[in-house]
Target: Peptide chain release factor 2
Amino acid sequence: MLAQIVETLDEMSSGLVDAKDLLLMSAEEEDQAAVDDVAAEVERLRASLEKLEFRRMFSGEMDPNNAYLDIQAGSGGTEAQDWANILLRMYLRWADKRGFDATIMELSAGEVAGIKGATVHIKGEYAFGWLRTEIGVH
Model:
């Protein structure tokens, strides 16, 4: 993993040097197509940097793993159960938008509306990393 990071940094460093040199030559020759190529290369390097930043943020031992999400309605009766259902729908949509596979493992319907509780298994790369701070009472 460390070797891959070093390799990416080396690639980015040489890519920036090459882009700078090409940009200087393009400016001298007033070659707009070459300037556009440099802009595309810089954008690709920026995307590589974002991936490295992501890996830095999600560097915990468990971060790359799948996750279980447990939602329980608190005290408050029907309103709390409705809120728990809203949270469940929100997390299911969030997982879908991120490309995760979300499976409802357990669902306990509310008495009037909403849910009493639900357990969702969210599968995908870094699902745990994204969800590890989603704790507490809402």
